[in-house]
Amino acid sequence: MKVAVVGATGLVGTVMLKVLAERNFPVTELIPVASEKSKGKEIEFKGKKYKVVTVDEAIAMKPDVALFSAGGDTSKEQAPKFAAVGTTVIDNSSAWRMDPSKKLVVPEVNANVLTADDKIIANPNCSTIQMVVALKPLHDAYKIKRVVVSTYQSVTGTGVKAVDQLMNERKGITDGPMAYAYPIDLNVIPQIDIFLDNGYTKEEMKMILETKKIMGDDSIAVTATTVRIPVMGGHSEALNIQFENDFDLTKVRELLAATSGVIVLDDPANAIYPMPKDAHEKDEVFVGRIRRDESQANTLNMWCVADNLRKGAATNAVQIAEYLLSQKLIG
């Protein structure tokens, strides 16, 4: 497989390369792609060095697959050019997610919607991915009516500048670059992305709209509050899930434990529950604090954690490519 990674020098692009290597994706030729200013820079993959090329150079090489993590504007402009030469693009930005002509895919949930004709495939928002992986088996069993989600999201979701801001603040450096309008160390910021006219942030609306599309069910009501916290390693979510049908807690745990890509850590008697440090550099979604909501019928509370750079971005994209290859939809 001739594989291009567009945005190869960025935070998610670097993790994409790492995940491709770890999962032994059959890369016969790697094409690292970045902006003009990074052209010629060397990156290492599986012990070999590769020179970064420009987008135009990469398109001329006609890769089989292009994993994009270079921002929405780049994706809007360049993804169709790759698709035009026969490349299958898996895009990590928000550019194509709600486009009705494009598939929005989490392999454990809806990989079956993909066909050989899908040349631009959208990778969902990080916080949505981990949530729907945990929701899918429960929706199949009990039919979800409504989800209330509150997120606790890592600074790595913003990028290198945010990580630098947090580390600088921890060292007492107050005049460094600021990714946020406020300090993040010893603080939480209840705003991720811009505010929209309805009072929700763009991140919150992504979770609401993307969940319906991925699950293939517009009847699922979702409301979200997304919060940035001074943490590395992964995003955490508190989920309150109302079902049409009643459930048994033992069965819920069994369903989740049997789900591909889910690990249940749920032993409150021994203070065992998922935390970002458990998910860091892992590909699975971790769930715990599984309990009945005693204030409302047929309602479950659950805690969900995943590495936002891996399952929330890079790993999910590579898993889409793996599925396409296994079904002979590429290559």
From TrEMBL:
Phosphate binds at residue 97. CDD domains: ASADH_C_bac_euk_like, VcASADH2_like_N. This is Aspartate-semialdehyde dehydrogenase. Pathway: Amino-acid biosynthesis; L-threonine biosynthesis; L-threonine from L-aspartate: step 2/5; Amino-acid biosynthesis; L-lysine biosynthesis via DAP pathway; (S)-tetrahydrodipicolinate from L-aspartate: step 2/4; Amino-acid biosynthesis; L-methionine biosynthesis via de novo pathway; L-homoserine from L-aspartate: step 2/3. NADP(+) binds at residues 9-12, 37-38, 177, 308. Keywords: Amino-acid biosynthesis, Diaminopimelate biosynthesis, Lysine biosynthesis, Methionine biosynthesis, NADP, Oxidoreductase, Threonine biosynthesis. Transmembrane segments: none annotated. Residues 2-117 form the Semialdehyde dehydrogenase NAD-binding domain. One of its GO terms (biological process) is 'de novo' L-methionine biosynthetic process. It comes from the Bacteria.
